[in-house]
Amino acid sequence: MLKLKLTGLSILGGLLMGISWPATGNLAPLFFVALIPLLFVEYTVCQNSDQLKSRHLYWFAFIGFLTFNTYTTWWIWNASEAGMLMAVILNSIFMGIIFLWFHSIKKNFGNRKGYLALIFLWIAFEWNHYDWEFSHPWSTFGNTFANYTELIQWYEYTGVLGGTLWVLLTNILIFEVFRKVVILGNSFKTEAKTIALISAIIVFPICISMVMYLNFEEKDNPTEIVLIQPNIDPYTEKFGTMSEAEQVDRILSLARTKITANTKYVIAPETAIPRGSIEAELEYNYGIVKIRELIAEFPHIQFLIGASTYINYQKGGPKPTVSARQNPQTKIWYDAFNSALLLDNSPGIQIYHKSKLVLGVERLPFAKLLAPLEDVAINLGGTFGSLGTAAEAEIFNAEADVAIAPIICYESIYGDYFGDFVSKGANLMVIITNDGWWEDTPGYQQHLSYARLRAIESRRSIARSANTGISCFINQRGDVSLPTKWWQQDVINGTINSNNKQTIYTTYGDYIGRIFAAIAVIMLLWNWVFIAKRKFGNL
């Protein structure tokens, strides 16, 4: 009966976290107490060590986080069943391991060090989750406030990991008050200082943020941009029944309705040129030819568009890159890319290759080891197998005073990588995405919400072009303007301001994650040495 009760509490914790999440409940303040059921489960396991072991706690934690991850990211199934299962199960396994490590340190060194360990370990995990083979930071706890931008303007100093610290600390302190008052029978009066501290931890950052939000003023430096939303079904039309010429013609027809004498940029979404072209021969592509014609008609514009591209290598011989694949007929090695292209009225095309790829969908982890399974990965741009990537963030030099960051789809959830574009001089951010793969689910709404976080962290305006809902403009406070609707052809014309100033976050990146990871490693080593001495000390 006790195990059943704790399983129910674990599921309750997962549901509370899910209800707090953008587009699956949007009750972000609920996250301040969402972890309490799991903390109570861990406390109960400690109090009943004769019946319950660490393996039981891991199971309870896994169930809780599986509920959370499934509740918030089930929609990945619409793009890839294998990708959804990989993301949800692996994320839950990793989160369960972190909770188990916290439990071990707490047992060995007491409550205070244990709860500190939870904070350091969790933030270290989230930081590591940005840049390793199983990278999938969609569920970083600080993301929960993405639609409450008035409350988190201070993310320009801390990034989303500051938000994770905020909710972890608050949950732990509230649980401690609950434990001492409800379980141990202390009076609220004896816990007055802790209650006052909790109030300050919640209220003070909100007050600071509201002041920042109300007083923030963008430098007036306007750029007029046209955003295209062609609304082409990725499952039946984009790579199937609709020709590339038809798709390109739709995009250019929409663009012509909104281009004015002041328009500087026209933006079309990810893989808007879908079929794939060899990069050395791009000028012969139908889409490029037609864009050149549009630029000749409106020579004051520049055109940024997503495309599937290829680079050919030598025939035969060893595999030139980890991501390269070989044409079975010609035996030529090549890399496929999800690319962004920038064209103007001068010769040449600026090209950027998407760097942050979707786990289980665009790439497999440990590519060398799992190369035989690479055909399981289905690129959301339309080619099969793991894609090639850019070595680092690259910007498009558009004008003397404008440098554009061409951010492709999934890359917009990586705050530190987004900041790399800014560090290289980007003062205007463009996100091109598809989002149609997920259908009318929370996926495309969450994706937009996370872009709002990037605007605050970097204090950069964003122009967002999606194949279907939601294309929009985002200002430097994270406010959304002119949002388009789901599953509708649309084109919008808007003006946003560029910005050249660096924030603390774009200057130093995820410094909280780096510091906390170093401390987490020390705490883990300390704990493992303690366990080893206890186990082998008498040998």
List the topology elements.
Layout lengths: L1 H19 L10 H4 L1 H12 L6 H20 L7 H29 L1 H18 L26 H4 L1 H24 L8 H24 L6 E8 L7 H5 L2 H13 L6 E5 L5 E6 L7 H12 L4 E14 L9 E2 L5 E12 L6 E4 L13 H4 L25 E4 L2 E7 L6 H9 L4 E6 L8 H17 L3 E5 L5 E3 L5 E2 L8 E8 L6 H5 L2 H26 L3
Parallel strand pairs: 1-2, 2-4, 3-4, 9-10, 10-11
Antiparallel strand pairs: 1-14, 4-6, 5-6, 6-7, 8-9, 11-12, 12-13
Helix pairs in contact: 1-3, 1-4, 3-4, 4-5, 5-6, 5-17, 6-8, 6-17, 8-9, 11-12, 14-15
The largest sheet, given as strand count, sense and whether it forms a barrel, is: 8 strands, mixed
- Count of DSSP H/I helices: 17
Q: Tell me, rounded to a whole number, the average pLDDT.
A: 93
Give me the Rg, rounded: 25 Å
* Classification by helices and strands: alpha/beta
Q: List segments where confidence is low: pLDDT < 50 over at least 5 consecutive residues.
A: 376-384
Strand content: 15-25%
Question: How far apart are the first and last residues' alpha carbons, in Å?
Answer: 40 Å
Helix content: 40-55%
The total tally of domains equals 2
Indicate the overall shape: globular
Could you tell me the number of beta strands? Answer: 14
Oligomer: single chain
Q: Would you mind describing this structure in some detail?
A:
There is one protein chain. With 539 residues, the protein is of the alpha/beta class. The chain has 2 domains: 2-216 and 511-536; 222-307 and 340-354 and 386-508, Carbon-nitrogen hydrolase (Nitrilase/N-carbamoyl-D-aminoacid amidohydrolase, 4-Layer Sandwich), CATH 3.60.110.10. It has 17 helices and 14 strands. It has helices at residues 2-20, 31-34, 36-47, 54-73, 81-109, 111-128, 155-158, 160-183, 192-215, 237-241, 244-256, 286-297, 367-370, 415-423, 442-458, 504-508, 511-536; strands at residues 222-229, 263-267, 273-278, 302-315, 325-326, 332-343, 350-353, 396-399, 402-408, 428-433, 462-466, 472-474, 480-481, 490-497. The strands form 2 sheets. Strands 1, 2, 3, 4, 5, 6, 7 and 14 form an 8-stranded mixed beta sheet that branches. Strands 8-9-10-11-12-13 form a 6-stranded mixed beta sheet, covered by helices on one side. A hairpin with a 2-residue loop joins strand 8 (396-399) and strand 9 (402-408). Helix 1 (2-20) runs antiparallel to helix 3 (36-47), helix 1 packs parallel to helix 4 and helix 3 runs antiparallel to helix 4. It is globular, with a radius of gyration of 25 Å.
